[in-house]
Design goal:
Strand content: over 45%
Number of strands: 54
Structural class: mainly beta
Radius of gyration: 33 Å
Shape: elongated
Number of helices: 2
Length: 602
């Protein structure tokens, strides 16, 4: 007789979910189990580097503070040096030796703008406007910009002081020059206005003796000039226009612009006229020290910065964005450069002046009300050419995010791969080398004390608020101290939120290029437990051998470690890696979660 035995039950089927390509960055807009697998609901001091998620680079002090707080910096190298405004002085740091030397003092305590124009480096801040040039031998020399003295009238009549207008008055200089047509036997020459004083008088190019009466406004020569024809007598006088001068003196924003060339210097940020922007263009003199009184225009609100995109000068205001395009206008038969204003977007502005950067030929800026944006088009025909970049990291009253931490004193930088925005020691980075504007990857750093940024092709430097100059380097310490890092994987429901799962294993692939130590914490509906065994990886080396963990050699490639979470009967599961070990990286390439279904909860 044949005995029939009952069939043995089949073992439960094993499933797995792989989390790889962890380059999506931080997502604070969605609840954790709705975050995309390549993003993270919580991460800190991690970035995408070399095809893996890894710790950001450490910081070191390149130069201690020479005295005073950090104010501003020239973001790009000029003549082998970087320039910084620290305290009330300008300093230069040699890019090869990192030696810091003082260039000049007396530039005040408000950060301004560095820019290049006409082969020299200029710095404009409130109450100071200096020109920096290479010194003979070594180092740099600096001096206040010499105001240009315009020739306001030509072919003037000695009897009335009237003539043909030539060059507009200069806001930066109280001095003006009038060219007269000399009359035979005439000693008295009337000025167009009653001047405060006469600076000089020339006849046929030579200085002549004279006296001046401020009551009548008449210049009397000791001997009547000979009839030399048109414009043979030239008188320079002084008549101050304090309001016009104050408008330029208090400017802090500067940009070089002129259509396809750097023809003009454009300035804004004036305390006297916050909505105005000024430029130095004139038909006869393109001088850095010449800002004609009629070369200005008004934006739609207080100007907070400039940016150049394509052939337009973008003018940022607190509540709107506009642009100016270079054109010429004709006055009395002469052509002048003009920068008329038109709006790009009337409902969005930039109230974070230090946030403007040109990223891959498109301007990026920030608003404390709504986040970070990129201008895709400067066309005023429609207002849809501005794309929001920070939708996933906006934050709020109960959730940490960019908008909750962003302050008006924020500074920004473009290092060629990432757009940095730093405020109060916190940095938010858009890595545009791995993500586009339509789907940006944002990363979050802490302990980034930056009052300004500067960079060379090889290094990024930070001007700290205490006046010290720091740089990033290939280490995993900040000034000798450990860097706190964490990365939380997107929570997984494994495709069935109502089903119970037993998470049996978690396999993590980690890199071995650097020494790395990671601690692993499991998170589920009712579980929060730390794995007792840290995840370790070691870089390959020949001497000395690392015998700490009885290891005589290490692999040259990534390797996989397996841990047992023991998360039974859960609906959602996640894990967090963290590390605050001095000198240790935290590099992970991918993770795999292995689980089985365990029925449904009744």
């Amino acid at each position: 007789m044949r005995l029939k035995l009952p069939a043995l039950p089949k073992p439960p089927k094993t499933y797995s979910v792989t989390l790889e390509g962890l380059s999506g960055g931080l997502d604070l807009a969605n609840i954790s189990y709705r975050v995309a697998p390549h993003r993270s609901p919580a991460m800190k001091n991690m970035c995408w580097r070399g095809g893996a998620l890894a710790s950001r680079r450490g910081q070191r002090l390149a130069a201690p503070s020479p005295g005073g707080e950090g104010r501003a910096a020239a973001q790009r190298e000029w003549n082998g040096a970087l320039f910084f405004h620290i305290g009330s002085s300008v300093y230069a740091m040699d890019c090869a030796t990192e030696a810091v030397s003082r260039v000049c003092g007396g530039v005040g305590s408000v950060g301004g703008s560095f820019f290049e124009y006409g082969g020299a480096l200029y710095y404009k801040t409130r109450g100071a406007y200096i020109r920096i040039t290479p010194a003979s031998g070594a180092g740099f020399a600096a001096a206040p910009v010499e105001p240009y003295v315009p020739v306001t009238l030509i072919n003037a009549d000695p009897a009335t002081g009237s003539g043909d207008t030539y060059q507009p008055e200069n806001r930066l200089s109280p001095c003006k020059t009038v060219w007269y047509t000399a009359a035979e036997g005439v000693r008295d020459y009337h000025l167009p206005v009653k001047a405060e004083r006469v600076v000089s008088a020339e006849v046929n190019g030579a200085a002549a003796a004279f006296s001046y009466s401020s009551a009548t406004g008449v210049v009397s020569f000791s001997a009547a000039p000979a009839a030399l024809g048109a414009n043979g007598v030239r008188i320079c006088y002084e008549k101050a226009n304090d309001e016009a001068k104050a408008a330029i003196d208090s400017c802090v924003y500067a940009e070089v612009y002129g259509g396809a060339t750097g023809l003009c210097i454009v300035m804004a940020g004036s305390q006297a006229q916050p909505e105005a922007y000024f430029w130095n263009a004139n038909h006869a003199a393109m001088d850095a020290g010449y800002f004609p009184v009629d070369c200005y225009n008004l934006a739609s609100g207080p100007v907070t910065g400039f940016g150049r995109q394509q052939s337009a000068l973008v003018i940022f205001s607190e509540n709107c964005i506009g642009k100016a395009s270079a054109e010429t206008r004709e006055i009395a038969g002469r052509s002048y450069v003009n920068l008329p204003y038109s709006q790009i977007n009337a409902a969005l502005g930039c109230d974070v002046p230090g946030s403007v950067q040109l990223v891959e030929n498109n301007l990026v800026f920030a608003s404390r009300r709504s986040g970070v944006y990129q201008i895709l088009s400067t066309s005023a025909s429609g207002e849809n050419g501005i794309l929001r970049l920070s939708g996933r990291i906006e934050g709020g009253e109960r959730k940490k995010g960019l908008l909750k931490t962003l302050g008006a004193g924020a500074v920004s930088f473009d290092d060629g791969e990432r757009y940095w925005l730093v405020s109060a020691g916190e940095a938010w980075l858009w890595d545009y080398s791995i993500s586009g504007a339509g789907d940006p990857s944002w990363f979050y750093f802490t302990n980034i004390d930056a009052a300004a940024f500067a960079g060379t092709r090889e290094k990024t430097y930070l001007l700290r608020h205490d006046g010290g100059i720091a740089s990033f380097y290939d280490s995993f310490n900040d000034f000798g101290a450990a860097i706190e890092r964490e990365y939380e994987f997107a929570a997984q429901s494994f495709g069935a939120e109502d089903a119970l799962k037993n998470v049996e294993e978690m396999a993590l692939t980690v890199a071995s290029e650097t020494d790395s130590l990671m601690r692993l914490e499991y998170k589920s509906d009712r579980l929060r437990r730390e794995d007792p065994l840290p995840i370790r990886a070691y870089s390959a080396r020949l001497i000395p051998r690392n015998l700490t963990y009885r290891m005589l050699s290490v692999g040259n490639f990534a390797h996989t470690v397996v841990r047992a979470p023991r998360a039974l009967g859960v609906k959602h599961f996640s894990a967090r890696l963290y590390n605050n070990e001095r000198g240790q990286d935290m590099s992970v390439i991918s993770a795999k979660i292995i689980f089985k279904y365990a029925g449904r909860e009744r």
